[in-house]
Write a structure and sequence with these properties.
By secondary structure, this protein is α/β, with parallel strands linked by helices. It has three domains: 46 residues, no CATH class; 221 residues, Rossmann fold (3-Layer(aba) Sandwich); 45 residues, no CATH class. Helix 1 packs across helix 2 and helix 1 packs across helix 3. The longest helix is centred in the last third of the chain and has 26 residues. It starts with a helix and ends in a 5-residue tail after the last helix. The structure holds guanosine-5'-diphosphate and magnesium ion. Magnesium ion binds next to helix 4.
Amino acid sequence: MGEPAARATELCDAALAGDRRALARLLTAVENRTAVAEAALRRLYPLAGRAHLVGITGPPGAGKSTLVAALIAEVRQAGRSVAVIAVDPSSPITGGALLGDRVRMQSYAGDQDVFIRSMAARGHAGGLASTSGAAAAVLDAAGFDLIFLETVGTGQSEVEVAAAADTTVVLEAPEMGDEVQAIKAGLLEVADLVVVNKGDRPGAQRTAAQLRAMLVASVPRNDAHHHPRPKRPEVLVTTASTGEGVPELLAALDRHRAAGRGGPAEAARLARAEHQVWAIVSDRLRDRLHGPGRRAVTEATLHEVAEHRLDPYTAADRLLGSLGWRD
Ligand SMILES: Nc1nc2c(ncn2[C@@H]2O[C@H](COP(=O)(O)OP(=O)(O)O)[C@@H](O)[C@H]2O)c(=O)[nH]1
Ligand SMILES: [Mg+2]
């Protein structure tokens, strides 16, 4: 057994036995896409598939982190375990700016059934989705009942991360201005549940009513991941800072999960699997084509395309041919 495989076995054994430091190290390996991570995922993936993966996205400041904290409290009260992956460079959930959040999170310091991890939104296109998908698989294998993926709904890749979950929650806050209204349309398409947070603010109920009207007007359709979304999303109102509406939100998440068996959630899982496998296939192809012995030919071919001396289809055939691939 090679060095990375041995290290992976050691970390996996410890993480599965409940060692949270080993779990954190595995997630670091996943984030850095190391050989240890790959070996660990080969081992852990068959153990995953039981957790409910919930994406929470929305504009910055809508209250995602505060809501996640409130959901953690609710989930723990029900005796269930929960992990959070915050894919948000500005997320206060573990490292950041907002003292209130940090204080709230700290009350879980000794709780084995709460695990919080922030993840940098970096890497190549699709990298974020495959990294967070792999991180979710590790946490799933470690036995967490619920996994929340908090992403800021401004970039396409962040939205995709949340949309690849079993259940996608899009958070809005009342009267956030025109700029946010523009984001809204795109975000709503990926929503299984829409939550208007800051229910204590004036206009929350009106915003919820407007959103319900928008959703009635829009024809349900499949999103970028080809998830069938035949059901119009429910619109709920929460006040994350007091916990109001949070039990109802958790109940709605559970309902969506229960209703999704054999339906949209299955399709979401298939789309996620496809995305993960294709990301690995394309990484491997790229590595091979730029590896020793092939790099010069690959680069020369790319230059020919850039200079319009070769068309991209012929170039692709030639590169695949150089790997011995013929159809
Ligand atoms: N009034 C009110 N403020 C809230 C509520 N939820 C969050 N906030 C505040 O809104 C700000 C942004 O919250 P945060 O959770 O960091 O938003 P995120 O950027 O979406 O993660 C913070 O000052 C929170 O305390 C709420 O329900 N009501
Ligand atoms: Mg946040």
